[in-house]
Amino acid sequence: MKPVKHENEVPWSPHPFLPIQIKNLLSKRDDRADLTIFLVNLPAGKEIPEHVHETQEDIIFILSGRGRMWIDGGGDFELEKGTFVRVPPNTKHRIYKVTEDILNYDVFTPPLF
Length: 113
Fold this sequence. Notes:
The protein is mainly β. The chain has one helix and eight strands. The protein has one helix at 28-31, and strands spanning 13-14, 21-26, 36-42, 48-51, 57-71, 75-80, 84-87, 93-109. The longest helix has 4 residues, at 28-31. The two termini are 15 Å apart.
């Protein structure tokens, strides 16, 4: 386990089925952590379809970009720099109408892997 990482030393990786790139900053598998943290890059014109994380809370902080998000029970809203979002476990959500590449800090607890 490495206690300090520099973002520019962590490679981007394609997500297995979503049109995003991720930087795995912290995980149970690699770091023995109790959460998973990614940087996520979602290109303009792409979207993350409706889905749920059955057991994880998904915490999202938008670092740059623009788009829209929908959360079941929370409605539809604009995503832009500085937006903080909490998606409870087992809650449908999606990101769409991405007009500027979105870069976000994404935390999952308990960990995804």
